[in-house]
Structure formats: structure tokens, C-alpha cells
Amino acid sequence: MEPFRTFKSIAAPLDRANVDTDQIIPKQFLKRIERTGYGEFLFFDWRRTASGDPNPEFELNDPRYQGAQILIAGKNFACGSSREHAAWALSDYGFRVVIAPTFADIFFSNAGKNGIVLARLSEHQVAQLLSNAKTIPNYQLSVSLEEQTVTDEFGFKATFEVDPFRKFCLIEGLDDIGLTLRHEAALDTFEARHDEAIWLKAK
Questions:
Q1: Among the listed residues 133, 36, 130, the one whose alpha carbon sits nearest the alpha carbon of residue 77
Q2: Neighbour-count burial of 127, counting CB atoms closer than 10 A to its CB (0-12 exposed, 13-18 middle, 19+ buried)
Q3: pLDDT in tens, 106-142
Q4: Could you give the CA distance from residue 77 to residue 87 in angstroms, rounded to a whole number?
Q5: What's the CATH code, domain 6-172?
């Protein structure tokens, strides 16, 4: 994972509550065996019309939000099934941060393992950010994981909670494999001793 400390980007509004994982990445795209390549299918049923053309009414198709890497959404984001593909799709599309009042528990875990920072703010704070993103051209937010803050250039500042272990992993850019490899030398030593013990017993 790419380490995350302080990040600034255009913020895209997705003013919808209860966005479920089947909307984030529809089930017909779950047949892929790779963890990459899901970004083009993110919010597919909303981003595309029945004919497959970009839907001009969908927020992320608005030119104002092209390149946005921070997503602002309503409460209970990523509810529904537990598919980790939802986090893969958001990450592959380019989102590094999702801000919402609440998140589904399993998605909260999956997102952290895939380098996405989830910032839980109050409904009032999220409503303010959604309004700003809709009305202020090129609206940008700065997210500091080290300070656990979300700020803009117009005086907005909010803090969010994050588990210390999750924070450490995100700052260091460590997924589950990366955490294991931190103990690579000890693992190699254990395996060598284990193999030697088996060899001695076999003699």
C-alpha cells in the first residue's frame, strides 16, 4: 500500500445514504480474479445509461469532479454484502479518502486493508462538506491522518477517530502481507530451525 500521511484533493459529493456494495461494484463484475481493474466498473449502474453511455446526471461524471480522490457520501456507506471488491474498486478508481457519517463495519475493515482512509464525521459536518463540494468550484479538502483532521481553505476543520493500529498501518503503507514481511528474518530463522529438526529426526 502507498503510505498515507497528509493528502489534498478535489472532493466529489455523493449525496446518497445507504449506498450498498452492489452499487459500488455490481455483482456481474465479481468474476475477475485480479484485485485490479475494477475502477472502470465503480458505480457502473449509476455512471452508465442503459445504452452504456456516461450518465450526465451522475455526480462523478460531472467534469467539475474529474480527478477527485476524496469522496463525500451519506450515512451507512458500503452497506450490504461483505465483498472486498468494493474497496478494490474505490481504490482502483483513485479514491484515497471517503468521508461519511457512518460506514458498514466489514467495509470499514476492508477499506483500511486497501489503503483507503475512512473519516467518520457528524451528519452536520458531512452536510456542510457536501454543500461546499456542490457549490464551490474546484473545492478541495486536506486530510491529515497524523493529526486526524479534515480541513478546507474556508475555515472548515473537523477531527475524526481512528484505531491506533489502523493508523499505524496506513501511515506506514502496510497491508496484511506487509505486516507479515516485517518479521521476514524471524520467519526465515524459524523455518530453517524447523527444517533442521525434521532432518535430524529422519536420520
A1: 130
A2: middle
A3: 999 899 989 999 999 999 999 999 999 999 999 999 9
A4: 12
A5: 3.20.19.10
